[in-house]
Write a structure and sequence with these properties.
CATH superfamily: P-loop containing nucleotide triphosphate hydrolases
Helix content: 25-40%
CATH architecture: 3-Layer(aba) Sandwich
InterPro entries: AAA+_ATPase, ABC_carbohydrate_import_ATPase, ABC_transporter-like_ATP-bd, ABC_transporter-like_CS, P-loop_NTPase
Number of strands: 12
CATH class: Alpha Beta
Keywords: ATP-binding, Nucleotide-binding, Sugar transport, Transport
GO molecular function, one term: ATP hydrolysis activity
Organism: Kutzneria buriramensis
CATH topology: Rossmann fold
Protein name: Simple sugar transport system ATP-binding protein
Length: 259
């Protein structure tokens, strides 16, 4: 069976700046592929290619085994690829259920008598959130009153409800405290267990390792390697992320200077 998404030797260049070079990884159903790296590592460029915002210059991008060049986020969505960005596209003063259906509102009636079906919207939102184990007090409350973690969870539930096969999460835990980050990771695991392929973008190996099945490490647009969970420990992942070899060389150099 082919993977849901696969990139093979993908590269992207903006003028003379090489943003991504020779990056390969796969995203399988029921698995989380974590993309790790510091600022400027190429994570955002990879997301934009997967989400249909930009096209790759070199290499291959395959969706369910078929080579593609996505021309827009709409085309990515039509192929079941949903992206939840760090700066969630929500309307803070609008209710949770209205944000849940934003752009796809349920209606009743026909022709010029068609109107918004509020009850169906509220009931469907409540049910979809409950299926993901999310218990909100009131789906009529403004989404801006939710915590950052709760908003991320609503966005995840929305993507699952609207039939996403692949869920791309851009730094979902970056601005959250320990407890809220844990809540979001729980729902990432739930999406994985429902058979979605999840791409988790993060710079925190301690968030990636508990839910991840595969880890792609990026640095300055290049891949440092793609590892299965059984092939790398949290300690080694953290060391690679921190530039372990460079730190060791620096320590050696500092010791030499001090003696």
């Amino acid at each position: 069976m082919s993977s849901l998404l696969e990139v093979r030797g993908v590269g992207k260049q903006y003028g003379s700046v090489i943003a991504l070079r020779d990056v390969s990884t796969v995203v399988n159903a029921g698995e989380v592929t974590c993309v790790l790296g510091d600022n400027g590592a190429g994570k955002s460029t990879l997301i934009k290619i997967l989400a249909g915002l930009h096209q790759h210059d070199t290499g291959e991008f395959l969706v369910e085994g078929e080579p593609v060049r996505l021309s827009s986020p709409r085309e990515a969505l039509d192929r079941g690829i949903a992206t939840v960005y760090q700066d969630l596209a929500v309307v803070p003063l609008m209710s949770v259920w209205r944000n849940f259906f934003l752009g796809s509102e349920p209606t009743k009636g026909f022709g010029p008598f068609r109107m918004l079906d509020r009850r169906a919207g509220r009931d469907t939102t409540k049910r979809a959130l409950a299926e993901m184990g999310i218990d909100l007090r009131d789906v009529e409350q403004p989404v801006g009153t939710l915590s950052g973690g709760e908003r991320q969870c609503v966005a995840i539930a929305r993507a699952v409800h609207f039939g996403a096969k692949v869920l791309i999460l851009d730094e979902p835990t970056a601005a959250l405290g320990v407890k809220q980050a844990g809540v979001v990771l729980k729902y990432v695991a739930q999406a994985r267990d429902r058979g979605l392929g999840v791409v988790l973008i993060t710079h925190n190996p301690h968030h990636a390792y508990p839910v991840g099945n595969r880890f792609l490490l990026l640095k300055r647009g290049r891949s440092l390697g793609s590892f299965d969970k059984k092939g790398i420990s949290l300690e080694e992942l953290t060391r690679q992320m921190a530039g372990g070899a460079e730190l060791e060389a620096l320590q050696h150099e500092l010791r030499g200077a001090a003696s």
